[in-house]
Design goal:
By secondary structure, this protein is mainly β. It has no helices and 15 strands.
Length: about 170
C-alpha cells in the first residue's frame, strides 16, 4: 500500500493496522500480486478518512434558577457527526436530549457535577466525556420580616435587611 497516513502500515497478508497520527482524507493505493508465473498484479485506489479525536468542547454550563425553565446546548469537536449525547448527575427536572440539549425546569437547588458523554458515528462505543458543574440557585427572597420602629428626631441606624437565595452579592 502507498499513501497510508503516518502510523498505519499494511502487512503482506493485506491487513492495514496501526494508529493513525494525522486526521484527513487520504488516497491509498493498494496492490496485490499472486504467485502465478508470470505474476499478476491488481491495484485499486481507496479513500481512507481519518477523523480527529472526539472531545467535549463545552467547558462550563450557565447557572440555573430553581423553578425557572433552563436550556443550554453542549458542544463537541472531532469525530464524525451525527453525535449522540447523554448525561448523568443532572438535578431533578432536567434531562439531556440525544442532540446535546440540557433542558427542563430544575426542581433542586445546589451545585451538581454533571458528566456529559458524546459518541460519534465512527466509534459509537468510545465516548468522550467531561465533568461540568451546574449551579442551580434557589429563589431570591427577603428574609427580614419587620423593621424596628423609628422616632422623629432620633437617628435610625444599624438596621440591615437580610436576603437569601439567588446569587450574591446582593
Amino acid at each position: 500500500a502507498t499513501g497510508l497516513p503516518a502510523g498505519l502500515s499494511m502487512s503482506s497478508a493485506g491487513v492495514i493496522s496501526g494508529t493513525p497520527m494525522a486526521a484527513g482524507a487520504r488516497s491509498v493505493t493498494v496492490t496485490v500480486t499472486d504467485s502465478f508465473v508470470p505474476a499478476g498484479a491488481a491495484s485499486r485506489v481507496l479513500t481512507l478518512q481519518v477523523y480527529s479525536a472526539l472531545v467535549v468542547t463545552t467547558s462550563s454550563l450557565p447557572a440555573g434558577k430553581l423553578g425557572v425553565p433552563y436550556s443550554t446546548t453542549v458542544a463537541a469537536g472531532g469525530g464524525k457527526t451525527p453525535y449522540s449525547w447523554s448525561a448523568t448527575g443532572l438535578p431533578a427536572g432536567l434531562g439531556m436530549s440525544s442532540v446535546g440539549v440540557i433542558s427542563g425546569t430544575p426542581l433542586t437547588a445546589g451545585d451538581f457535577s454533571v458528566t456529559v458523554s458524546v459518541t460519534d458515528s465512527v466509534a459509537p462505543g468510545s465516548p468522550a466525556s467531561r465533568v461540568l458543574i451546574l449551579k442551580v440557585y434557589s429563589a431570591l427572597e427577603v428574609v427580614t420580616s419587620s423593621l424596628p420602629n423609628g422616632k422623629i428626631g432620633v437617628p435610625y441606624v444599624g438596621v440591615t435587611v437580610q436576603a437569601t437565595g439567588g446569587k450574591s452579592p446582593y
